[in-house]
Task: structure prediction
Amino acid sequence: MNLNHIKKTHGSLLTDESRLQSVNYLNQVLADEFTLFTKILNYHWNVTGPGFISLHTLLESQYKEMIETMDNVAERVRILGEAPISTMKGMTSKSDIVEMNGITMSENEILNDLLNSNVGVQEKIRDYYIKNAKSLEIDPITETLLLELLSMHEQRSWVYRSHLQ
Result:
């Protein structure tokens, strides 16, 4: 490895190319988390039905937790020496999560949509992790952040599946 091409600042030994690749991916993650946050907030405001109290309470705890999650991702981007996306236009252009109209959705439709969105995020994280294992070996902080996100989305998927049964 040519040490002249390694950026030793910003908390890692990543090459500039690997660092920028991580930043780009983390910004995509941030956009997906923000869109999912907005979706959960939408459903929290608009859920109706016999399970209103439990679902309303569950969604409130999740959107509050997501604020910290997004902050952690954005701070990691800053630590890597770049700026996180921070506009609605930037978020919507990078996110793969499809927004839905929570006003007309049943409880089960909401839960199924959230389940599918979380599974999609999990697949995206796993795919990135597999394809970039070498870069993540020398950037254990980003690796840990991604594993924590994966764990959070797996846990949420389990909760949604349990509600649907």
In short: Confidence is low (pLDDT under 50) at residues 1-11. The helical segments are 16-46, 52-79, 88-94, 107-131, 133-137, 140-164. DSSP finds six helices and no strands in the chain. The chain has one domain: 13-164.
